[in-house]
Automatic annotation (TrEMBL):
The keyword Signal applies. Keywords: Disulfide bond, Membrane, Signal, Transmembrane, Transmembrane helix. Residues 1-19 form the signal peptide. This is ZP domain-containing protein. Residues 40-317 form the ZP domain. It comes from Amphiprion ocellaris (Clown anemonefish). The lineage of its organism: Eukaryota, Metazoa, Chordata, Craniata, Vertebrata. The chain crosses the membrane at residues 365-387.
Length: 394
């Protein structure tokens, strides 16, 4: 009883200080509707906006709208915003299990489609909850209707980080935030050292072939319950992965013999490296430019090990058509340029080659003349001997 009285007094004080009255609502004063709540599924937080005037019309104010029955946490309380029309009460809470203001987390699995069709287990996590009204009426009956505002956000846990340009050299990242996705918390960066401390800045003429390219995919500002697991990384000639010649650096447990995996599925970062190469179809170009793509999975710590089992189809170098992604991926771009073999000789090299060819021709001609002279001498000797024998017989 004391707690109820305290809550009533608190709500009255707040109402007297900042709450709207029914007359303040004007034309916005009406009965509640299903569309009164707006949900924004961000990458690090979920934002709710509930029209307050229908709640006032029903007999409540912003202090009586309780998120997931949590009343004693200031971070989970709504804030009145009268700067918009109609005015709303806003809730904002992080997407971290144990710190999401009582939200429910449910992970489901389904067979992958599109670019993820090779994977039999694509996970999605659903974050849901409800904002309820608290009726301060003391007694047996009440005339205030109970209000419930449900919210739900679904986050796929498989992403395509693509358009990482490999010019075999500048690291530029273009990022686009998608609602209901963790894609903007993921980034892919190239380094030139195995300690991942020196970013790889591509020289204008590209990096040398066979030079190691160190790749790191990191999840930042993400709830600690998820690890980063790379399912597939491949390079393609085109910036878009569809209709392009591609080369798999690794697919699940099938890893190219020159690709070295350092860390994958054990923390919120994944690391590997490979020697710079070139595509044969770019042999007439001075610089071989290609693009690195990684299909990245966010898996719960307890389940990451199950996705690391080597039970998927192995692949090798192939010309393949990659279908569109299930979700619209954000684009991360990092350029890599690789030098090809020089097809044009320098002036000095050309002169040197010409002189070498001249000397070779002279030597060959001398040998041919010597052989002819020897043959001629032998023929003369044989003819002389034959003539003498004939003369004796006669």
């Amino acid at each position: 009883m004391a707690l109820i009285l305290l809550l009533i007094l608190t709500s009255l004080c707040i109402a007297g200080r900042e709450a709207l009255s029914l007359s303040d609502c004007g034309a916005y004063a009406r009965r509640p509707e299903y569309s009164d709540i707006t949900v924004v599924c961000g990458t690090s937080a979920i934002d709710l906006a509930i029209q307050i005037c229908p709640a006032i019309y029903t007999g409540y104010n912003e202090s009586l709208l309780i998120l997931n029955r949590i009343r004693n946490n200031v971070d989970c309380q709504g804030m009145l915003d009268t700067s918009v029309a109609p005015p709303v009460v806003r809730f904002s809470f992080p997407i971290r299990e144990g710190n999401a203001c009582g939200s429910n987390f449910l992970t489901t699995s389904a067979t992958g489609t599109g670019i993820f069709s090779d994977f039999s287990n694509i996970q999605t996590v659903n974050v849901s909850g409800v904002v309820r009204s608290f009726d301060p009426t003391i007694g047996t009956i009440t005339y205030n209707a109970e209000l419930k505002y449900y919210y739900s956000c679904a986050y796929p846990l498989e992403y395509l980080i693509n358009n990482t340009q490999v010019d075999v050299s500048s690291a530029s990242i273009a990022l686009k935030d998608n609602n209901g996705s963790f894609i903007s918390t993921l980034s892919m960066t190239l380094y030139q050292d195995i300690n991942y401390t020196i970013p790889l800045i591509m020289p204008p003429r590209g990096i040398e072939l066979r030079k190691n390219v160190y790749v790191q995919v990191v999840a930042s500002n993400l709830t600690s319950q998820y690890f980063v697991l790379l399912d597939r990384c491949y390079a393609s000639v085109s910036s878009q992965p569809s209709n392009s010649t591609s080369f798999n650096l690794f697919v699940s447990c099938s890893i190219d013999q020159l690709t070295t995996m350092l860390e994958n599925g054990d923390s919120q970062k994944a690391r590997f490296y490979f020697p710079a190469f070139r595509f044969i179809e770019q042999q007439n170009e001075t610089i071989s430019t290609y693009y690195l793509h990684c299909i990245t999975r966010l898996c719960e710590q307890s389940t990451c090990s199950t996705f690391k089992q080597c039970n998927r189809n192995k692949r090798s170098v192939e010309t393949t058509v990659v279908q569109d992604s299930v979700t619209k991926p954000s684009v991360l771009t990092v350029a890599i340029k690789a030098k090809t073999q020089d097809s044009i000789l320098s002036k000095e090299e050309a002169l040197s080659a010409g002189q070498s060819d001249g000397r070779g021709a002279s030597v060959g001609l001398g040998i041919a003349v010597a052989v002819l002279v020897v043959i001629g001498v032998v023929a003369i000797l044989m003819a002389t001997t034959f003539y003498r024998k004939l003369k004796r017989l006669s």
